[in-house]
Design a protein that fits this description.
Elements lengths: L3 E5 L13 H8 L3 E4 L13 E4 L2 E12 L4 E7 L5 H29 L13 H9 L7 H9 L14 H11 L2 E4 L8 H6 L6 E5 L9 H10 L2 E4 L15 H11 L3
Parallel strand pairs: 1-2, 2-4, 6-7, 7-8
Antiparallel strand pairs: 3-4, 4-5, 5-6
């Protein structure tokens, strides 16, 4: 039974749920705790590392993309507190996100001849652009927009400027109670991604995609490096609890991140 969904995005980044809607969505899914892990951005409505709203525990977190040298990976920070250094880096990243989104939109409009209705604001990401493409006259669904236009190998892809792995890890360690690697088996080189766990506290074991793969490398990394297993839906839409932690796993997470 899943009691904690520790990977959820709100409309503060590229999710569809407002923060105020999370408790209701969590209760509907039978989930007791949710980690708000907006992309490259702290949530302005969360003033503490953990808050309790309408019977649901909300853990303030962040998902930060970093450059590991062999490729980009995502780090998850849990129990986040605001630090000047992390907030400054998030502001820089958001400026880059807006500029990058504008360049992608220009490329898509040139490629398709369609005009996209999208607000280029902090938090903007490719899911916003894909939704705008789907709602335009371009003739692509959300999935097709990624597969044929704005995915990493697409003609309208634009790379982002992200911090190095070491810089991102240092920023999150100073601000968060626990720092882990997100969805390790999604990367092109999972073995090298998992090797990064030697310098982390946690790793995502449960997530809803790539389930045909063998989880044993992640389980070995957890044992070798004494990692906290985490997990969640990576929810961008309205459904929570698709993946996450059991009660025993959530208890171990709480103890390590010092949520009380």
């Amino acid at each position: 039974m899943i009691v904690a969904d520790l990977h959820v995005h709100t409309d503060n980044s590229d999710g569809t749920l407002a923060l105020g809607e999370l408790p209701g969505a969590a209760r509907e899914a039978g989930v007791e705790a949710v980690a708000v892990t907006d992309h490259d951005r702290l949530n302005p409505e969360l003033s503490a590392p953990v808050v309790h709203r309408e019977g649901v525990t909300l853990v303030h977190g962040i998902e930060l993309r970093v450059d590991a040298g062999f490729g980009k990976v995502d780090l998850l920070g849990y129990g986040a507190r605001r630090t000047d250094a992390l907030e400054a880096e998030c502001e820089r990243i958001q400026r880059d996100r807006v500029e990058r989104a504008g360049r992608i939109v220009d490329l898509v409009e040139s490629e398709t001849g369609a005009e996209l209705d999208i607000e280029l604001r902090p938090g903007v990401g490719r899911p916003h652009i894909a939704r705008a493409i789907e709602n335009s006259d371009a003739g692509y669904t959300y999935r097709e927009a990624f597969e044929q236009l704005i995915g990493d190998d697409g003609p309208c892809y634009v790379a982002r400027e992200v911090p190095s792995f070491e810089r991102g890890r240092e920023l999150l360690e100073a601000a968060c109670g626990l720092v882990g690697l997100a969805h390790p088996l999604r990367y092109d080189d999972p073995e090298r991604a998992l090797a990064l766990c030697e310098r982390l506290d946690a790793v995502e074991l449960h997530y809803p995609y790539g389930r045909a793969v063998d989880d044993r490398p992640v389980e070995r990394a957890i044992e070798t490096h004494d990692l906290v297993p985490t997990g969640g839906s990576d929810a961008h839409e309205r459904e929570l609890g698709v993946a996450g932690l059991s009660r025993a796993e959530y208890r171990a997470f709480r103890e390590r991140v010092e949520l009380g």
